[in-house]
Amino acid sequence: MIGENTDAYRLFDGGADGMPGVFIDDFAGHWLVQTREVEFPEALCREPDPACRSLWWKNLDPEKKHSPEWKWGQRPEQPFPVRENGLRFLIDFSVGYSQGLFLDQRLNRAETARRVKAGGALLNCFAYTCGFSVAAAGAGAETTSVDLSKRWLEWGRLNFQANALDDAAHSFCRGDSFEWLRRFARKERQFDGVILDPPTFSRNQKGKVFRVEKDYGSLAALAARVVAPGGWMLCCTNCRALDEGALRRMLRSGIGESGRGLNEMAARPMPPEYRDEKYLKSYWIELA
Ligand SMILES: C[S@@+](CC[C@H](N)C(=O)[O-])C[C@H]1O[C@@H](n2cnc3c(N)ncnc32)[C@H](O)[C@@H]1O
Questions:
Q1: What are the boundaries of each domain within the chain?
Q2: Which of 107, 126, 178 maximizes ligand 1 atoms within 8 Å of its Cβ, making it the mutation to test the pocket?
Q3: Is residue 128 within 8 Å of residue 150, measured between CB atoms?
Q4: Which fold is adopted by the domain 103-287?
């Protein structure tokens, strides 16, 4: 538990906590043990921690992108809610490789809630289950969430409902973020804040490929065009092949290409319990 209002966080972070390749995320007492190139630590089942209600295992081998395997304890009814900064998010261990909430984005969701103004407009591209949108809507913003997957957007609506937020008052756009950004620019739609958290590699319905290392600059250029004067962008990536300097250069040149002035670009660290590898890079960018 991190404070009263958060019960979903990284509990154990690999080598930094004494076991390289073993990462444990606590989802309201249901522990997801993730391993990279090491065996599942069976001792966890033999001597269960009193704070643990159930144990699950996910192999991080990219060839084995399966749902987590149940190992021990009382299986929760799925989906089940977790709390983060007082908001509720639905988690499901039975639906595939991803469980519904990326815990490493906790500080960025909190910063989003701090930055949005009541009645302000937020565009959340690559929205997944709309975690950033829920954080912004909880702070009074009008949100637009874009994702290729109908299934994730429907999950996003459930996350709104879990917080007694009226999902009908928010927009959920299924499709390619690049195409939606172009459409919003054509219609001269503007947003006070835009969030970009693309996957490292993606292929849209028309087969067009996006690679973070090559294409983030053009994505930032498209996004900058729909940011209102004095608005902001959050640009994230967990692409390990892209270092901070290269990412900063791409973002600067993309925003320059859009013709927008850049007032500030500030890197933000991962949540403090991620002590092993700082793989998530996040830039908060203020435009003129
Ligand atoms: C890394 S996840 C985003 C996580 C999300 N920002 C969060 O913190 O909850 C990537 C998401 O992008 C979506 N996606 C992939 N390619 C896309 C595209 N071209 N346009 C829109 N969504 C896309 C996937 O369906 C997935 O939900």
A1: 8-89, 103-287
A2: 126
A3: no
A4: Rossmann fold (3.40.50)
Over residues 64-109, the pLDDT tens digits come to 788 999 999 999 999 999 999 999 999 999 998 899 999 999 999 9
Q: What is the pLDDT of residues 204-221, one digit of tens each?
A: 888 889 999 999 999 999
Determine which residue's CA is closest to atom 20 belonging to ligand 1.
176
The reply to whether 103-287 shares the fold of 8-89 is no
Cα dist from 32 to 9, 28, 59, 95, 110, whole Å: 11, 11, 10, 14, 23
The identity of residue 70, as a single letter, is W
**Strands 30-35 and 54-59, bridge-based pairing:** parallel
How far, in Å, is the centroid of ligand 1 from the Cα of 44? 33
165-209: pLDDT as tens digits = 999 999 999 999 999 999 999 999 999 999 999 999 988 888 889
The total number of residues shown for the chain amounts to 288
Q: Within 13 Å, how many C-alpha atoms sit on residue 3's CB side?
A: 6
List CB contacts of 64: < 8 A, sequence separation 6 or more. Answer: none
Atom number of ligand 1 nearest to Cα 177: 20
Cβ(70)–Cβ(56) below 8 Å? yes
Q: Which two tokens stand for residue 20?
A: 């390289």
3-state secondary structure of 84: strand
Domain 8-89 is of which CATH architecture? 2-Layer Sandwich (3.30)
